[in-house]
Design a protein that fits this description.
Protein name: tRNA-dihydrouridine(20/20a) synthase
EC number: 1.3.1.91
Radius of gyration: 23 Å
Helix content: 25-40%
Strand order of the largest sheet: 3-12-11-9-7-6-5-4
Keywords: Flavoprotein, FMN, NADP, Oxidoreductase, RNA-binding, tRNA processing, tRNA-binding
Structural class: alpha/beta
Enzyme class: oxidoreductase
Largest sheet: 8 strands, parallel
CATH class of the largest domain: Alpha Beta
Cofactor: FMN
């Protein structure tokens, strides 16, 4: 594979784990494959089944007939094919962010998976699927939180809370990994410094249907440090590279890294540049940069999110130094105007606590950053969807408070929001599973709106 790619080999290192078999065109002619034969002689034609981390242009060094792009659990699979004449030219960018729920070439044993006509890329298709994302946040971004965020935005990329490999390998896997299809796309963040454990856990994540595996190299909490992972891993870039390689060898979905820009008093840009370079050599193509140092001693996790100064320019410089990589930025970003400004310099923006405390901030993400044509949902429509979700979850035995606690900021900034939050926090009604608290909560919103109308 590497010999075919020449100067583009570095980019495709990140996709080798997706190579599962050779295929050939049923009619032997360039164009859309009429059928697929797994492990058949292909005369040098190879199909890469992968989820591309970033749409980039690359230079072909030899004749190729390829590319299987798995779009979604329900979408068809299309294969691009190029002639010898394309060798040495800049080939088109290919659709990034393809979903790999079907994932394996050996599942495509007949032409029923193939579309009847070639897929035509639009400008919208070339943007990163992680153009806007919500950060993994301990005790917050569980499946109920993600379900609320998905009601607000169809396209925002979502992350789980960090899950340790020990919890998966020796605990209740379903409790940690179960999620509803409506949450997708969703990435699983893992915490560990053991390559073998990470590989096994990443495989579990893939089997449970996650779209990405993310390695936590940014958490500064003492509890995480005692387990020798999180931000302290930035001091050992080769170990991180080994972890990434182990996971990439085990799964076909993207393996990404979330990290800080420095540790303790190390503030030199060269530190994070070399970290990214070393890990990228192991095949990681997506880096999420929390643009602050991690202070491992003397600051709490909360203080680490507020006291170390933000240095967005470090993330911008990483994009300049590694244009082939997908670089997302995180830290202190609160408005979509800020998101738009950052996207002039990097590929993606990750929102953190603002998205949790003010989930409606995501309402215009789909239209503004993904080109979606669907109308922006109102808060009332989102609440109605959440009510339906809560009703279904109650039937499964879920505590109502596990759901409502994530929605307290839905009406943030709206008159009457305080009364609405108070009703959704009523422990006695929550214990009863009383969905009537939504109706009572809305009376506060209606009364406040009526009062504003009279006063105006």
């Amino acid at each position: 594979m590497r010999s075919l790619l020449g100067g583009g080999a570095g980019f495709f290192t990140g996709m080798l784990s997706g190579l599962f078999g050779r295929v050939m065109s049923a009619d032997g002619e360039p164009g859309w494959f009429g059928g697929l034969t797994i492990d058949a002689p292909s005369s040098g034609r190879e199909v890469v089944c992968a989820c591309m981390a970033r749409a980039v242009q690359y230079r072909a060094a030899a004749a190729m007939s390829w590319r299987c792009m798995m779009m979604s659990p329900r979408a068809d699979v299309g294969c691009y094919e190029y002639r010898q004449a394309d060798a040495g030219k800049i080939l088109p960018t290919l659709l990034n962010g393809c979903r790999t729920r079907l994932r394996r070439c050996d599942k495509m044993s007949n032409s029923s998976f193939l579309p009847s006509a070639p897929f035509v890329m639009s400008a919208e298709s070339r943007i990163s699927p992680r153009r806007v994302s919500v950060a993994p946040m301990m005790d917050w971004t569980d499946r109920h939180c993600r379900s609320l965020h998905r009601l607000v935005s169809r396209h925002t990329w979502l992350y789980t809370e960090m899950v340790t490999t020990g919890a998966l390998l020796y605990g209740d896997v379903a409790r940690h990994l179960a999620f509803t299809p409506d949450e997708a796309p969703v990435a699983l963040q893992l915490g560990s410094s053991e390559p073998a454990d990470l590989a096994r856990s990443a495989k579990l994540g893939e089997q449970w249907g996650y779209d990405e595996i993310n390695l936590n190299c940014g958490c500064p909490s003492e509890r995480v440090q005692r387990s020798a992972f999180g931000a302290c891993l930035m001091k050992e870039p080769q170990l991180v590279a080994d972890c990434v390689k182990a996971m990439r060898d085990a799964v076909s979905i993207p393996v990404t890294v979330k990290h800080r820009i420095g540790v303790d008093t190390v503030e030199d840009y060269a530190f994070v540049r070399d970290f990214v370079g070393t890990v990228a050599d192991a095949g990681c193509e997506v880096f999420i940069v929390h643009a602050r140092n991690a202070i491992l001693k003397g600051l709490s996790a909360k203080e680490n999110r507020e006291i170390p100064p933000l240095k967005y320019e470090y993330a911008y410089q990483l994009k300049l130094n590694f244009p082939q990589l997908e670089i997302s930025i995180n830290g202190g970003i609160k408005t979509l105007d800020e998101v738009e400004e950052h996207l002039k310099h990097v590929d993606g923006v990750m929102l953190g606590r603002e998205a949790y405390h003010n989930p409606y901030v995501l309402a215009e993400v789909d239209a503004r950053f993904y080109g979606a044509a669907a109308a922006v949902r109102t808060r009332e429509e989102i609440e109605a969807g959440l009510l339906d979700y809560a009703r279904a979850e109650l039937a499964r035995g879920t505590y109502l408070s596990a759901i409502t606690r994530h929605a307290l900021g839905l009406y943030r900034g709206v008159a009457g929001a305080r009364g609405w939050r108070r009703e959704l926090s009523d422990s006695r009604q929550l214990a009863k599973g009383d969905l009537g608290i939504f109706d009572v909560g809305r009376t506060h919103l209606r009364d406040a709106a009526a009062l504003e109308a009279v006063e105006s």
